[in-house]
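Re: that backbone. Tokens:
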């Protein structure tokens, strides 16, 4: 079962969406404002968004980047982005 946790820093306009638990292995820098943490088996642990103004990633834009390794990483980024957008639009922060 996935354990989703969203940490938001409104002042910095940054957030971390934790999608699963596990031992951190490495980070992939998607772009200047998006990073993905991975476990050694490739499981996406979480996605860091460093600027809320860049919450416009698409499947196509992610697939065109050489740093995105496979489809499950793309899907995790899109899921995290949607969860964050929903949280920002519905929460009283």
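Recovered sequence:
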């Amino acid at each position: 079962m996935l354990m989703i946790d969203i940490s938001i820093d409104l002042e910095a306009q940054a957030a971390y969406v934790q999608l699963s638990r596990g031992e951190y292995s490495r980070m992939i820098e998607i772009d200047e404002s998006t990073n993905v943490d991975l476990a050694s088996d490739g499981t996406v642990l979480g996605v860091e968004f460093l600027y809320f103004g860049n919450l416009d990633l698409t499947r196509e834009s992610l697939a065109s980047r050489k740093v995105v390794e496979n489809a499950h990483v793309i899907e995790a980024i899109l899921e995290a982005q949607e969860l964050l957008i929903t949280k920002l639009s519905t929460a009283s922060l």
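The chain has one domain: 5-90. Residues 5-90 form one domain.
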